[in-house]
Amino acid sequence: MINYPNGKKRKYNALKISQANRGMTLEKDLNRSNKYFLEKNIANIHKKPTPIQIVSVDYPKRSAAKITEAYFKVASTTDYNGVYKGRAIDFEAKECSQKSFPLKSIHQHQIQHLKSVIHHGAIAFMIIRFTSLDETFFVNAKDIINIYENKEKTRKSIPYSWFKKNCHLIPFNLLVPVNYIKVLDELYF
What we know:
Radius of gyration: 20 Å
Order of helices and strands: EEHEEEEEEHEEHEHEH
Helix content: 25-40%
Structural class: alpha+beta
Number of strands: 12
């Protein structure tokens, strides 16, 4: 309950004012973190653009060109890649609103890509945010690959409890909202 100076009282929902609802998505938080890493010369990691084929563009005026039809050229691989301390970094970022992570959020071509970059010596992982719980986890790609490839026919998701037990929680920070570099340092360097 909030007590206002004019004597009015108002109920509030703690979730509404939590960090999960501060108006930033995981992608924006990661882009902000990566910008900080680049500016401080810590790491060079960028969001990969999704390859599209433009079919039609509307030109009402030159400065206001608008793509009106396009399609994906090829299936996208992962969201981010770059380099940190001389090692290739490659990862996928996913948000989830439930208390379990749906395996359908990961696609076969992404699993193949993660396996390939691991084979070639890159550090590969996923960053998964449970928006309803306001928690973001660093998940080793090998763990996700193992679950994905060995999933039972009935298994459709990974429970939140698995993440708590097997993954690294990435605490929120205003300066670096998703500081996965700390986890990389702990695990690999």
